[in-house]
Hints:
229 residues; alpha/beta; Rossmann fold; seven-stranded mixed beta sheet; binds S-adenosylmethionine
Amino acid sequence: xxxxxxxxxxxxxxxxxxxxxxxxxxxxxxxxxxxxxxxxxxxxxxxxxxxxxxxxxxxxxxxxxxxxxxxxxxxxxxxxxxxxxxxxxxxxxxxxxxxxxxxxxxxxxxxxxxxxxxxxxxxxxxxxxxxxxxxxxxxxxxxxxxxxxxxxxxxxxxxxxxxxxxxxxxxxxxxxxxxxxxxxxxxxxxxxxxxxxxxxxxxxxxxxxxxxxxxxxxxxxxxxxxxxx
Length: 229
Ligand SMILES: C[S@@+](CC[C@H](N)C(=O)[O-])C[C@H]1O[C@@H](n2cnc3c(N)ncnc32)[C@H](O)[C@@H]1O
């Protein structure tokens, strides 16, 4: 599979915004196919691990088409979604309050939420330290954060199969059904993903503690939970 260069730091936000605007109409369908329909189960696990009571306010950052928002609403929480892409927001099917904005500069007052979720978006952000500082700012003390992201399986055999699938099959499926360049970028964007230690270091520096990392999908995805100190 031909590799294209990843966008430069300064181009990344507009590149990502344009890409999600383009793939938004088919995003849900391709996502379900790519994860064999497992992705909603992983989101459900994040919501369960937030361990928040009914009516508590939760912000879903990079909410996309609304999969997390629907689960948060179904758990009797009070969700709000924010996303950079107008296209993804247009195809959002959650029926909850939505705001267009960037994770690096969240359009919400300090300590507005008891919890925050963020699915498959960390590697798309431009400045992760600023994003975690924003997460910490908008969450109340003792509030919970739950992050869902892709990962690289640790087992060598599973890693080999996953690499074949993620780097060669996903771009073909995504390209045929939606947008070729976007689904080539998807596996490459893993290069932006910090290690577990780097993520925890950044999040600790922003005021989070009590980290838990749970591997799901045979190690192809990860859940990171933390508490606002
Ligand atoms: C792979 S999609 C994930 C959508 C959704 N969270 C999910 O679990 O399906 C990544 C989302 O991140 C959004 N995004 C990327 N950069 C962003 C930023 N700086 N601020 C807010 N949203 C951003 C994109 O528009 C897109 O909707």
